[in-house]
């Protein structure tokens, strides 16, 4: 499976300079970072969440985990992982576990952790387990218009990075 057409069309229509990185299928953003030989801190992972019935995307470095208490406090309500079957409904053109960070394509708000906001370039999953997109952070912020706030924590236990927050 290749990058969803709507993502490719969106990037091209908005004149975003990007490069597509093809790699073997990976089960997590941290595994993709290892395979691409780049630090997990510069690879963004998208995690689908819900607040009651509202879906949102949290974007954090591959080597970080969401602090659900912090994000719940920011949003003023309890935040939970979106159930896998709901992910398929919300992001139908993406492989399971490979949601791209472009919530505007799915009418979903995006929250970007401040740990990524300082990087010049970011690498994102492109909707498949074997494609990633590299682009400038400035272009990402201009295109996606995420809410930038601090809600993630660096994870020192690599085994935890594949448990629900891959």
Task: Describe the 3D structure.
This protein is an alpha/beta fold and 166 residues long. The chain has a single domain, classed as YbaK/aminoacyl-tRNA synthetase-associated domain (YbaK protein), CATH 3.90.960.10. It is 27% helix and 29% strand. The protein is built from 6 helices and 10 strands. It has helices spanning 5-13, 29-36, 68-75, 84-90, 114-117, 137-144; strands at residues 18-22, 43-51, 54-61, 64-66, 80-81, 110-113, 121-125, 131-136, 147-149, 152-154. Strands 1, 2, 3, 5, 6, 7, 8 and 9 form an 8-stranded mixed β-sheet that branches. The chain has a two-stranded antiparallel sheet with strand order 4-10. Strand 2 (43-51) and strand 3 form a beta hairpin. It is globular and about 35 Å long.
Layout of SSEs?
Blueprint: H1 5-13, E1 18-22, H2 29-36, E2 43-51, E3 54-61, E4 64-66, H3 68-75, E5 80-81, H4 84-90, E6 110-113, H5 114-117, E7 121-125, E8 131-136, H6 137-144, E9 147-149, E10 152-154
Parallel strand pairs: 2-7, 3-6, 6-9
Antiparallel strand pairs: 1-8, 2-3, 2-5, 4-10, 7-8
